[in-house]
Amino acid sequence: MSNPALRRALQHRRFVVAPGVFDMISAKVADGMGFAALYATGFGTVASHLGLPDAGLATYTDMLGRVRTFAEGCRTPIIADADTGYGGLLNVRHTVAGYEAAGVAGIQLEDQETPKKCGHTPGRRVIPAEEMALKVRVAAETRRNPDFLIVARTDARTTHGLDEAIRRGRLYAEAGADVVFIESPESEAEMAEIGRSIRKPLLANMVEGGRTPILPAERLAQLGYAIAIYPAVGFLAAAAALERAYAHLKAHGDSTGLPPGESYGFGRICELMGFPEVWDFEKRWSSSEAPR
């Protein structure tokens, strides 16, 4: 069952900041911090699961298993990246049904050609807008719960310009998208133009080192945006922390002397992963104390 909290937040115009999650440690950490939504990043999930670039190499099956694990392990609503829907219209129907059954609150579909590429890398090509509009219509028709959100993304800005990207955003909104995602605008002025031009909740993709300026949540809301995703912030921080810790181990031959704050702490990670409940269960059902 889709979590209705995210749709309610949009209806009440509460700005949503969604950190990217890419494995269950990142998901568990973010889930306990009070965010209105989490974003299951395709880039980060493919990297952590397969060790491959986000270049259309992961399959529907690869991603569905991860998405289901995120949804089952988190209380926070999750928006999940589903690339192009993994094929044509029939694939989109299958993907939407699978993602909704997995328990996420929303699915993101994009208008790139297959194989797709990461939205802030060069060489992206898009399918005709009318083909994507059909995908959006199929997605909206397929969902069983109206709280399940359809996020329609266009990658047309980089190759075809802002006007074409806005035209596509409007078309996808008319086709039934609940949220419109114009990927990689290149200035605050472009983001303002998007906000003036599309009368549907808008999603901003805040990628450190990407093509779009990173703006405060208050400013994004002023420009007309409803959601800001930060897909890379978690895995960029995690990779940097791992590199520092492994470099220390290589240089010193042990893990003592790591600077304060560099380690999460074994007790804390045990608690995060749910070990206290396991220990309580084992104690309760031990041979000497089992319920009768």
UniProtKB/TrEMBL annotation:
CDD domains cross-referenced by the UniProt entry = ICL_PEPM
Query: What lineage, starting at the top, does this entry show?
Result: Bacteria, Pseudomonadati, Pseudomonadota, Alphaproteobacteria, Acetobacterales
Tell me yes or no: is 4Fe-4S among this UniProt entry's keywords. no
UniProt organism field = Craurococcus roseus
Q: Where are the transmembrane segments?
A: 223-242
Can you say what this protein is called? Answer: Isocitrate lyase/PEP mutase family protein
- List keywords of the entry alphabetically: Lyase, Membrane, Transmembrane, Transmembrane helix
What is the top-level taxon of the source organism? Bacteria
Record's keyword annotation contains Coiled coil: no
Any idea which GO molecular function terms this record carries?
A: lyase activity
Q: Which InterPro entries match?
A: ICL/PEPM, Pyrv/PenolPyrv_kinase-like_dom, Pyrv_kinase-like_dom_sf
| SUPFAM superfamilies cross-referenced by the UniProt entry | Phosphoenolpyruvate/pyruvate domain
